[in-house]
Specification:
Blueprint (H helix, E strand, L loop, with lengths): L2 E7 L8 E4 L4 E5 L6 H11 L29 E9 L11 E9 L4 E5 L2 E3 L1 H10 L9 E2 L6 H4 L2 H12 L2 H107 L1 H41 L2 H27 L3 H24 L3 H87 L4 H5 L8 H21 L4 H65 L3 E6 L5 E6 L2 E6 L2 H5 L4 E6 L13 H18 L4 E5 L7 H14 L4 E5 L3 H6 L2 E7 L5 E7 L3
Parallel strand pairs: 3-14, 3-15, 8-13, 13-14
Antiparallel strand pairs: 1-2, 1-4, 4-5, 5-6, 6-7, 9-12, 10-11, 15-16
Helix pairs in contact: 5-9, 5-11, 5-12, 6-7, 6-8, 6-9, 7-8, 12-14, 14-15
The structure holds adenosine-5'-triphosphate (ATP).
Adenosine-5'-triphosphate binds next to α1.
Protein name: RecF/RecN/SMC N-terminal domain-containing protein
InterPro entries: P-loop_NTPase, RecF/RecN/SMC_N
Organism: Candidatus Liptonbacteria bacterium CG11_big_fil_rev_8_21_14_0_20_35_14
């Protein structure tokens, strides 16, 4: 038993809440025409997911809502709920009882619930198909459809069989996969065409931008080299430049210190100098005194020698001195003669003249003196006086010499001190000079470094770089040869870069974006291709499953069908066969028809089901020649064949026994009886035999208020 009960409220002719309990076995629903029996079947069909209003005998879904009667006003909504016993877990839900409920409102909105939780219709249908329930097949056979199996198309027949076999679940899955495959294929085609569209443009962009590809690399390399080159030079030059300053200021200190010292030295030199004039004037005085004294001595000596001659001349006159005088005179004249002869020999007439004048004047004075007639004694006295004078003068001269020596000594020591002080001043001056010179040299050096720095700054500017960038890069000092090597590399790189031309940023950006888009599309294409492959394999798997299970079941059903057919028709033959399927398919592609080989399994599951019959005692065959009753019999035989191979949990049949004659109606109720051990039956019938075989009988009547009523009539025995 699966169906437990049905609850209706405002559904079609059931204005009020009605509950129908379904026990195990057969439930027969009976009642007069138009009382609302089929409305119950409609409710079940609706609850099993029917979407087609026509199948529910209405124009729109709102026709399902009680429309009012002479005694009752119309309802605002219709609801129906079917309760299932789920202890055997026919539904893959953990509940022991499953309630499926649908509601429809006048505004057309409808709601679906599984155990009071709202769900989508899709979820409901999926759940039902997983439990081999649905409205496509023979689970619910509506009134007037007793020959459903015959009048159905081969494909509809297949659908009916698949629903009972529980293959509908796989069909839904396959359908879903196919829908996805279709979308995926569309996306794949779109993506492919986008790729095809982008690719030539991308190739062009790649060609245009490839020449700049290395540019970035080269630029990076250039920056690196410039960093080394300018960095090393900048740090070396700034260090050198800054190193000069302390030296200059040290010299500043030295200079001012030396200047202070010079001032001191000059002051002391001046002091020394001031002490000099006194000594010098004293010496000059002494020296002039010395000259005077000298000339005085010479005068006195001359006078004395004259006096001596005079005395000699006087004494010659005295006899005792005559010989001596004569000798002296001889000598004297001899001397005069010798001198005169020498001077004459020399022919120095001027000197001779002077000599003679002197002799003459001497002679004059002698004769004058002799004429004065001084006596010798007087002369001697005179001589003595003069000698005293001479002695005095000589003594004085000695004193002066001593004084001069002393002063000279003093002056000499002054000179030594002066020279020393002077040389100190001079050496200080030259020291200052050398400091200044050194400082000037350093200033010049600083100027040179500054010039070099400015030159480097110009180079940095020309390279389009910022000077500040290199101040923070502490680089090791590079050797001249290293710098030269780097410099030539820089020149080479700059040459290469300028040969490349300026980068067209917009073009590079476009190329980059296009490349990204291209890669994205490629990835997407790969994903889609994988999805297509996955879906195709899912579809193939599902198709195989459907194919195998269906084929296996169909041959069994066909045998059962033959059995039930010959039982009902008292002989004859019947079978179900699959339609022949075309393996080859013609598809149009690019205006040309090409033959496409479709895999058999994929194609085979689309094959419908044909019925082949041979009636007993009749020569004719085919479905068209069958009577109405015969059509119902064939359909019922097929139904029983189906449920004997794969019994469904329940069957809902609305007057399918109506066209049967009494004998066949009896046979039908026997078979229902037989199958009711496994299958729960809900049957609407006017057939007495069917009513009698039922376990429960519900009588449906139309009340005086115009609404349907249900009366339960439990059968006994
Ligand atoms: P028969 O034995 O002749 O097949 P039945 O018992 O199966 O009859 P139904 O077809 O179930 O009868 O009921 C039809 C009745 O239900 C009609 O009288 C119809 O007017 C009524 N009906 C259908 N839809 C509505 C509705 N929305 N509101 C009120 N009554 C409705």
């Amino acid at each position: 038993m699966l169906l437990k009960r049905l609850e209706l409220n405002g559904f079609k002719s059931f204005a009020k809440r009605v509950v129908l309990e379904f026990p195990k076995g057969v439930t027969a629903i009976v009642g007069p025409n138009g009382s609302g029996k089929s409305n119950i079947i409609d409710a079940i069909r609706w609850l099993l997911g029917e979407r087609d209003a026509k199948q529910l005998r209405g124009g729109t879904t709102t026709d399902l809502i009680f429309g009012g009667s002479s005694g009752k006003s119309k309802s605002g909504m219709a609801s129906a709920a079917l309760f299932f016993d789920n202890t055997k877990k026919i539904f893959p839900l953990h509940f022991d009882e499953v309630e499926i409920k649908r509601e429809v409102y006048r505004d057309g909105t409808s709601f679906y619930y599984i155990n009071k939780s709202e769900v989508r219709l899709k979820d409901l249908i999926e759940l039902l198909s997983q439990s081999r329930l649905g409205t496509k097949g023979l689970i619910v056979v509506s009134q007037g459809n007793s020959d459903l199996f015959i009048k159905a198309t081969p494909l509809d027949r297949r659908e009916m069989i698949e629903e009972i076999l529980g293959l509908r679940e796989f069909r839904i899955k396959k359908h879903e996969a196919e829908r996805k495959l279709k979308n995926t294929t569309i996306n794949l085609e779109k993506t492919s065409s986008l790729i095809a569209e982008i690719e030539p443009h991308l190739k062009l962009l790649r060609r245009q931008t490839s020449k700049w590809e290395k540019r970035e690399e080269l630029e990076r390399e250039l920056i690196g080299l410039e960093n080394d080159y300018f960095g090393s030079k900048a740090s070396f030059l700034t260090e050198a430049y800054l190193a000069v300053d302390p030296l200059i200021s040290e010299l500043d200190n030295n200079i001012s210190k030396a200047k202070r010292e010079l001032k001191d030295l000059e002051e002391s030199l001046l002091k020394i100098e001031k002490s000099e004039p006194e000594n010098r004037s004293n010496l000059n005085k002494v020296r002039s005194k010395k000259t005077i004294t000298e000339s005085a001595i010479r005068e006195i000596e001359g006078f004395l020698s004259d006096l001596k001659i005079k005395i000699a001349l006087k004494e010659r006159d005295s006899p005792e001195n005559t010989e001596t005088d004569f000798k002296e005179a001889t000598t004297y004249f001899k001397d005069i003669y010798t001198e005169a002869k020498r001077l004459m020999g020399l022919k120095d007439l001027e000197a001779l003249n002077l000599f003679l004048k002197r002799i003459i004047s001497l002679g004059d004075s002698v004769f004058k003196e002799s004429n004065k007639d001084n006596n010798v004694n007087e002369l001697r006295e005179q001589e003595e006086k003069i000698l005293n004078n001479l002695r005095k003068e000589k003594k004085e001269f000695d004193f002066i010499l001593k004084e001069e020596k002393e002063l000279e000594k003093k002056l000499e020591s002054f000179t030594t001190i002066f020279r020393k002080a002077f040389s100190l001043v001079e050496s200080k001056k030259s020291e200052i000079g050398s400091f200044v010179e050194k400082q000037d040299r350093l200033k010049l050096e600083k100027e040179r470094w500054s010039f070099k720095i400015n030159d480097l700054k110009d180079q940095v500017r020309q390279a389009g770089r910022k000077w500040d960038d290199f101040l923070n890069i502490k680089k090791d000092k590079l050797s001249e040869s290293e710098l030269n090597e780097i410099e030539s590399k820089i020149f080479r790189l700059r040459g290469q870069l300028s040969a490349m031309g300026e980068v067209d940023e917009a073009l590079v950006k476009e190329a980059k974006e296009t490349e990204e888009r291209f890669n994205f599309l490629k990835d997407q294409l790969a994903d889609l291709e994988k999805a297509v492959a996955d879906l195709e394999s899912v579809i193939l798997e599902l198709s195989e499953k459907i194919h195998e299970e269906f084929n296996e079941a169909l041959s069994k059903i066909s045998l059962e069908f033959d059995k039930f057919f010959s039982l009902m028709f008292k002989g004859g033959k019947a079978k179900l066969i699959k339609q022949k399927v075309e393996i080859k398919k013609i598809e149009e592609e690019g205006g040309e028809n090409i033959e496409v080989i479709v895999p058999k399994k994929l194609n085979d599951i689309e094959a419908g089901v044909e019925i082949e019959l041979t009636l007993p005692k009749k020569k004719v065959s085919g479905l068209d020649v069958l009577s109405g009753g015969e059509r119902s019999l064939v359909s019922i035989a097929a139904l029983f064949a189906l449920i004997s191979v794969s019994p469904p949990p329940f069957l809902v049949l609305d007057e399918i026994d109506a066209p049967l004659d009494e004998r066949n109606a009896g046979r039908f109720s026997d078979m229902v009886q037989e199958f009711s051990k496994e299958v729960q039956f809900i049957i609407v019938t006017h057939n007495r035999a069917t009513m009698e075989s039922a376990d429960v009988l519900y009588g449906v009547t139309l009340g005086e208020d115009g609404a349907s009523k249900v009366v339960s009539m439990k059968m006994t025995g």
